[in-house]
């Protein structure tokens, strides 16, 4: 699988194992942002589509489509789009279950 195909994993909403959870933060055409949390590995990361990656300034782009927590800030420009999407898609309860904080604070640290 290539980096560009990572997003394809989520197109059918696959059943994740019991130790993982995810939320679609943004799905607008070819622009997709997914947050994934693995409870056993105590790891979290954000996977983005190639289109999201290319819209970022080059100095903020990782080598792959995966952002680790220390680099979540690079996606701050998407805060308002994410807030709109989460509200309109009815995922606010799931968002608060995962983060217990307002969307505007997701990319601040």
- Number of helix segments? 3
Backbone CA Rg = 13 Å
Main pleated-sheet profile: 4 strands, antiparallel
* C-alpha termini separation: 31 Å
Nearest-integer average pLDDT? 85
Pick out the low-confidence regions: none
| SSE sequence, one letter per element | EEEHEHH
Strand content: 15-25%
Helix-and-strand structural type? alpha+beta
Task: Describe the overall structure.
By secondary structure, this protein is α+β, with helices and mostly antiparallel strands. 22% of the residues lie in helices and 23% in strands. It is built from 3 helices and 4 strands, in the order βββαβαα. It has a 4-stranded antiparallel β-sheet. A hairpin with a 4-residue loop joins β2 and β3. The radius of gyration is 13 Å and the shape is globular. The mean pLDDT is 85.
């Amino acid at each position: 699988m290539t980096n560009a195909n990572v997003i394809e994993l989520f197109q059918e909403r696959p059943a994740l194992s019991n130790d993982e959870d995810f939320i679609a933060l943004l799905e607008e055409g070819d622009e997709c942002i997914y947050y994934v949390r693995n409870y056993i590995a105590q790891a979290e990361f954000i996977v983005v589509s190639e289109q999201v990656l290319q819209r970022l300034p080059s100095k903020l782009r990782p080598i792959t489509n995966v952002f680790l927590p220390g680099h979540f800030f690079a996606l701050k420009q998407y805060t308002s789009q994410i807030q709109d999407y989460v509200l309109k898609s009815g995922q606010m309860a799931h968002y608060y279950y995962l983060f217990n904080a307002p969307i505007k604070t997701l990319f601040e640290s």
